[in-house]
Each structure stands twice: as C-alpha cells, then as structure tokens.
C-alpha cells in the first residue's frame, strides 16, 4: 500500500502542476471539457538525451494494478487539453533509401514507423501472411493478398494494436517504445518475375532506422507473428551481428516469436501438394526454400547441411540461436491444424481427428520444454501479440504482457549480475489436455451463426465424449463437466 500512496502522491503533484499550466493557457475563457484520449506516448527530448527509459517496475503495485492504471489514465486525460495540437499515434509509411531492394513485384520496399524520441527501446515487427512456393500459387497470392507482395497500394499510416499499441491500458510495458512494422525476411532470390528479398529488406530497415535514432537504442526487440514469427527465429542473430558489425555493440537485440513455432509432423490425411494449405509442412518448406532462395542461420545450416529446410521449424533452429528469444505459441495452433488437414468447421470431428488434435498439443508441449522463456496457452487460435485481447490471456495466473515484462527484467538483472526477480515467471505452459481448456482463451464463435460458444459447447461441437475423457482423466463425468463450466 505504501507504493500505491507514493504513486498517488506523484500523480496528484503532476495534476496540480498541469492544472496551473492549463489555467494559464486558458485564462480569460471557461475551462474546456476534458476529452477522452490516450496518454502521450513519451516526452520529447533532444537526440543527445541519454535518459534510460527502462519500463516501470509494477511489482509493488501488482495487486492494485487496475487502480494504478485508472489513475494513470485519469492523469493522461487531465493533461491532454494542455497539448497545443492533436497527438499522432499512427505509424507512418517510409520507403527504403536503398531502392534496389524491392517487394515481390518490384515496387519499393518500405516500413511503417512511429518514433518515440524519449525512449531508447525499439520494436521491429515482422508481419505474417502465409507464403507461396511456385509461380502458380505466387500468382494466386498476388491476386488475393497483394498488399503482402506489393507496396503499390499501401496506406500512408497504420494504427498499431496489441504490443504495437501506443495505449498503456492495451500495451502496459511497450506503449512508449519506437515502433516499426515491416515484412517477412525469409529469402533472397528472384524467380518467375518475383523478387524475394526479405532478408535484405530487414537489413536495410535496420540501417535506415540507425539514422532515425536506433543508433542511440539500448534494447531492440525483433518481434513477429506467424510467418513473421518464424522470421524472428531465422533473423534475430543476423540483426544482432549486423549491428555489431556496424559498431553498435551496446544495443541488446532480443527476439519475440508469436505463432511461428511450427512442427514438421505427419498430416492427419496426406494429400497432393498443390498449394500451401494442402501441402505437408515439410514438403512446402523443401519446395519453398529452393524457390525463394531461403536464408537460414549459419550454425543451423551447418547442423542440417543439405537439408537446410529443417531450420524453418522452431524446435530445430532454436538450439543454434544466440540472442535471447521469447516464444509465444498456442498449443493448438489453427495454422498448424490447417496444414495438417484437420478441419474444425462443419461436422463434429471424428474420434481419430480428436486424438490427433490432443497429440498435437502433447508434441508441441514437448518441443517447448527446453525453451527458457515462453508462453503457451492450451487454446485453439493463431497469432496473439497484435490482438487487442492479448492482455487477457493467462497461463497459470500470469498474463502475456506480465510474462514479457518479467523476461525483460530478468535479462536486465542478469546483465547487472543481480538475482532474477522472485514471483516473476517466464516459462509458462498450460498442462490441461484439450483445446480451449484454459478459461482465458480468446472467444470462439460458431462459423455459421456467429454466436459465441462456451468451452462445453465448443468441445461438444468437436465430438467431445464426456464419458471417455472423464475415464482418461480418472474422474467422474459430472465432475469433469463442472470443471469445464467453471474454467477450473
């Protein structure tokens, strides 16, 4: 409670000062009505300012976090009318200085950027969006997902959500960081009229950002979702080596891979490899790495010489990564189930499919056991760090933003030879055996009606047999239903 009182006193002091400032600005007229708006992302400072912007330690107020964030929001709303102009929270489009590095169709490569000049923390996000591995499905992808292959119709601005949000209530620990949004860096080649320069693009983005303040950074977090999450695993060391080679040895490079930890498992039903959805995971990558000119880390390449495609699978490339990486992965990833030919819409799944789904969770859990920093909920979903509900999902009572903050603190303490913080877990994985057995999983909706389904309705839809599952768990069926209903 002492920490809360101290925070409250500081907030009150700032409010009193801001009130005086507002009074001077608006003297002679009536007080303006406060407008609801998010807080300013950071203060403005000269480029030469070396103030450390390490995130606030909320441990002391953990039990009263809701009250604390309410006070921060109220403070922000009180300060907002004092601003001379509307603050801009969107990321703005920038094209690379090096025009020889392009998108798939030859249009200029670029990225979105929101600067936060008072912060020495940077976040580069790599977008997902599947892939293609021959001319036919690349042509199809170009027609249906053109913005992922061309910059010709990119908007001038992009609004960040989740970990890219500038709002502290949505993004408690990274809201005031410098944000960059880019494409997936997996390749380096030209084929059938398409340029695959992802690996070069990320290098050029980093070089561009060095002229915009990254050279003064303390921490660079390379994050990505889906294929972008795989891109993080393949490129985090490459980015660290690039910065070190350019003389920026003081920048701590870290990785955050979301929904990019795929398995090279056997499909439920083997089918002809005609597109990225029907093709087995291993066959897709084998074909793709040749077509794209896929780039993999040198150490992993040496380990899997002649079979470099192995390095596109998280559990195979992870042992070769030197940079700290935090892995976020749903235990029942929808994209993984899709390429494994498990259909979860329409008719209830068959018993064989149900066993396959359960085994997938077990396999994935086993591949993650040696990952020191991870967050793996037993949910059926895909991607999370850019979703606005990312703060709601918990594993063993800890939210994802909280786990990332604990990881941030542990890395900081390790560098300063301090003991890791107590009660701050970074290795979090669900142990319950079914999809959506975690009550904090994202909402599931019926594909046809759009109505929300609770856990029991969802499991029944999937062909869940209460008697069999209760027998497997060694409990009474009524007790099992009660646990599912209460989310315990």
From TrEMBL:
UniProt keyword Signal, yes or no: yes
Single Gene Ontology MF annotation: glycosylphosphatidylinositol phospholipase D activity
InterPro entries: PAE/NOTUM
Superkingdom of source: Eukaryota
Keywords: Signal
GO BP terms in the entry: anterior/posterior pattern specification; negative regulation of canonical Wnt signaling pathway; neural tube patterning
Region Disordered, residue ranges: 26-51
Leader sequence residues: 1-22
Tagged with keyword Signal: yes
Family: Belongs to the pectinacetylesterase family. Notum subfamily.
Protein name stated in the entry: Notum, palmitoleoyl-protein carboxylesterase
Organism, scientific name: Stegastes partitus
